[in-house]
Design goal:
This protein is of the alpha/beta class and 532 residues long. The protein binds ligand J2J. Residues 190-191, 234-235, 239, 305-308, 327-332, 336, 352, 410, 412, 424, 427, 433, 436, 438 line the site of ligand J2J.
Length: 532
């Protein structure tokens, strides 16, 4: 396995092989489907449609182009593209060559990309020309100035001083297939408090996730998956997402935005059967469905996950959208929990489901380290055939995030019903879950302290009717006569090149922060103070 990664112990790996969880599947090679499917539609996008055969050929050409550009297997490439054809072609091409994508989110800006290039030692960065008011060629300039490993910047669109992604193209050459048990891609952690950590996922582990999820969701050649969320995120990438659907011979539809006005016409035009959403989108879709002229009758399954869905909204989904709701409690680190399509309504509405695989080991652990019983709250620990054993190049961090016997400490507080279904009740780590987008509080505090003359800063989650949680920043200015305003904070975060979703939603100016006995900010007391 790639240096800097933590392999599964050989005994576990042997079991996963012997029991068929891991096989010789290599990501990206299954777009050469059965002959009768080759003319079937693989991708539907604003720019046009593509058959499986065309996608297969485009991926082969780009794979050869990447090698010709000088990339070699094992190199890392930070990939940040909108939901467009080029993102899928590039991903398949990278998988086929053994060059490793590090999937950044579309909302990331120079601060985050610099961090990702720095930690991964990436040889290339792939970005769009521009999205809304952001010129990504300027982001690339900043990243190049602040990092040392980048040899290439590929731009989808007008490349400016860099290389056009469309020029990464060559007549197909024979490719050496990657080792199925080596790393295929890196995802980003959402659930921990600092800047995102890199999650290595192997061909074998991710391919298993794709196969098993497609089976559980009934996804096959006739399925049409709508990627409303960014494809770089595990949910839309592989649960079953775009990759699981393509692998099954189905069709993936790429939406440029997750709003009903963009997605409903696509559902009607492409006959979408399954899609996935984060909770804040659900009420908006339900409202829009009441008035829409678009035919949504092809929808069979709507998956909702990333943050807690409230039961009242959950209850309305089947009738309003004419389909089954599936709650998904997942994490890029691995473990996926799903409600099953034939579960009773009470399970689908009130729980976040149960593990995907019979080989997923889950423990609910009380604060004192003992095992919690049914209905009791504890932290979820897990290990299994598609759950990482360590973050990339994070030896020290791994000591605290994993138990000695390899369980990943999720930081999630959960309860398990007698039937074995999870309810997510909170987190022990300091992360604001802003409707599925994870805001690391530590990182926001660091930006505040660096940008303003402050004696202290503490960021916490407050309940929010639409987002579930919103980000509240409490600051103590050095000069109490001139405290920063929320507008100042917004402007500074933007100028520092920080993703917009990390900008605090609310700013509270205080004279002092409550402290614990050991000199840490007492967030519990702070929360109580804000509530009062
Ligand atoms: C409450 N909290 C949830 C849920 C995730 C599918 C779906 C989601 C993700 C994801 C994903 C939740 N209810 N239904 O990767 O493949 C919170 C938990 C978890 C963290 C992981 C997928 N579903 N969460 O959200 O890596 O706190 O993955 O540990 O971004 O989101 O975040 P992330």
């Amino acid at each position: 396995m790639l240096e800097g990664c933590v392999p599964w112990p050989e005994s576990a790996a042997r079991t996963y092989r012997e029991q068929g969880y891991w096989n010789t599947d290599v990501l990206g090679t299954w777009t050469a489907p059965a002959p009768e499917r080759r003319s079937g539609t693989a991708l539907v996008t604003a720019a046009g449609d593509m058959t499986h055969e065309e996608l297969d050929r485009a991926a082969d050409r780009m794979a050869s182009g990447l090698l010709r550009a000088g990339l070699v297997p094992g190199d890392r490439v930070v990939v940040q593209l909108p939901n467009e054809t080029s993102l899928v072609v590039l991903s398949l091409a990278l998988f086929r060559t053994g060059v490793l994508p590090v999937f950044a989110l579309p909302a990331h800006r120079s601060t985050e990309i610099t961090h990702l290039v720095g930690t991964s030692g990436a040889a290339a960065y792939v970005c769009p020309e521009r999205v809304l008011d952001c010129d990504f060629r300027l982001v690339a300039r900043e990243v190049l100035d602040r990092t040392e490993s980048l040899r290439h910047v590929f731009v989808a669109g007008d490349p400016g001083p860099y290389t056009a992604l469309s020029s990464v193209d060559a007549d197909p050459v024979a490719l050496r297939a990657p080792d199925p048990e080596d790393v295929a891609l890196f995802l980003l952690s959402g659930g921990t408090s600092g800047p995102p950590k890199l999650i290595p996922r192997t061909h074998a582990d991710y391919a298993y996730q794709l196969r098993e999820t497609a089976r559980l969701c009934g996804v096959g050649p006739d399925s049409v998956y709508l990627a409303a969320l960014p494809v770089e995120h595990n949910f839309a990438l592989g649960c079953p997402g775009v990759l699981g659907t393509l692998r099954a011979g189905g069709t993936a539809v790429l939406a440029p935005a997750p709003t009903a006005d963009v997605c409903f016409p696509l559902i009607a035009r492409a006959g979408v059967t399954i899609t996935s959403l984060v909770p804040p989108l659900v009420p908006l879709w339900l409202d829009a469905a009441e008035w829409t002229e678009h035919d949504l009758s092809s929808l069979r399954v709507v998956q909702v996950g990333g943050a807690r869905l409230d039961p009242e909204t959950a209850r309305q989904v089947p009738q309003a959208l004419g389909c089954t709701l599936q709650q998904v409690y997942g994490m890029a680190e691995g473990l996926l929990n799903y409600t099953r399509l034939d579960d009773p309504e009470s399970v689908i509405v009130h729980t976040q489901g149960r593990p995907l695989s019979p080989a997923d080991e889950v423990r609910v652990v009380r604060e004192d380290g003992t095992e919690a019983g049914p209905g009791e709250t504890g932290e979820l620990f897990t290990r299994g055939p598609y759950t990482l054993r360590g973050y990339y190049r994070a030896q020290e961090r791994n000591l605290t995030r994993f138990t000695e016997d390899g369980f990943y400490r999720t930081g999630d507080l959960v309860r398990r019903t007698v039937e074995g279904d999870f309810e997510v009740v909170g987190r022990i780590n300091d992360v604001v879950n802003r409707g599925g987008e994870k805001v690391p509080t530590l990182e926001v505090e660091e930006h505040l302290l660096a940008a303003f003359p402050l004696l202290g800063a503490a960021v916490l989650a407050l309940p929010d009717p639409l987002m579930g949680e919103r980000t509240c920043a409490c600051v103590v200015p050095k000069d109490s006569a001139h405290p920063p305003t929320l507008r100042d904070v917004q402007a500074v975060f933007k100028s520092r090149g920080v993703a917009a979703y990390k900008v605090p939603d609310q700013l509270v100016v205080l004279e002092r922060l409550p402290m614990t006995g050991v000199g840490k900010v007492d967030k519990r007391a702070l929360r109580a103070h804000l509530d009062s």
